[in-house]
Amino acid sequence: MNTPFAIEVDKLTKRFGDFIAVNAITFKVKKGEIFGFLGANGAGKTTAIKMLIGLSKPTEGMGKIAGFNVDTEPEKIKKNIGYMSQKFSLYDDLTVVENIQFYGGIYGLSRKKIKEKTTEILEELELTEVSKSLVISLPLGWKQRLAFAISMVHDPEIVFLDEPTGGVDPRVRRQFWETIYQVAEKGRTVFVTTHYMDEAEYCDRVSIMVAGKIEALDTPHNLKQQFEATSMDEVFLKLAR
């Protein structure tokens, strides 16, 4: 990747018949940036993300993720990104170790690398003592951190997090954002969706989608100044009117 950008999107559009779910969105995300992708339910966030991670073909426009084209190279994109869904994508009926090993295999890691990564994740998350416990028995905050670590088991340049803090208490949410910062400090790009407007303050830049269009994109500080607001909640409310 000889560009400073991890993600480049130009007029990306998705139609379903006469309905335009994503309407010519354009933005770029720098390498190592924490980029917030905000919007109410039905704004088009999920449809946009599916195009970006190679799960849905765009109707029009261009997108490049880690240097690969979303229209023609979706399989290469999938191999070069990490993805954590809102439901964490963990298998409750497998142990902690078995989940790590399973996803390591999915991403094509060697047995040696899977063993190294398993030890690394268990030690970093302090899960060694419960490594043989079923995931279903873990507290929600531990599941969240484990799912995040597994999404990066293959050392991707870019990590997509879809509502990663949904359903957890404020204390656990803050702890999780500390983990996100640690990942970004190592040079990874983090693309995160959230409906918690206070979490937008943790991002380097945010975009706000309304009815399929990006209606605002800047740093949280600049957006609050632009909309004469004291919080990102207030910015969002003004845009949604």
UniProtKB/TrEMBL annotation:
Domain ABC transporter stretches: 7-236
The keyword ATP-binding belongs to this UniProt entry's keyword annotation: yes
Keywords: ATP-binding, Nucleotide-binding
Gene Ontology MF term list: ATP binding
Annotated coiled-coil segments of the chain: none
Pfam families listed in its UniProt record: ABC_tran (PF00005)
PROSITE patterns: ABC_TRANSPORTER_2 (PS50893)
The protein, known as: ABC transporter ATP-binding protein
Protein's organism: Flavivirga jejuensis
Taxonomic placement: Bacteria, Pseudomonadati, Bacteroidota, Flavobacteriia, Flavobacteriales
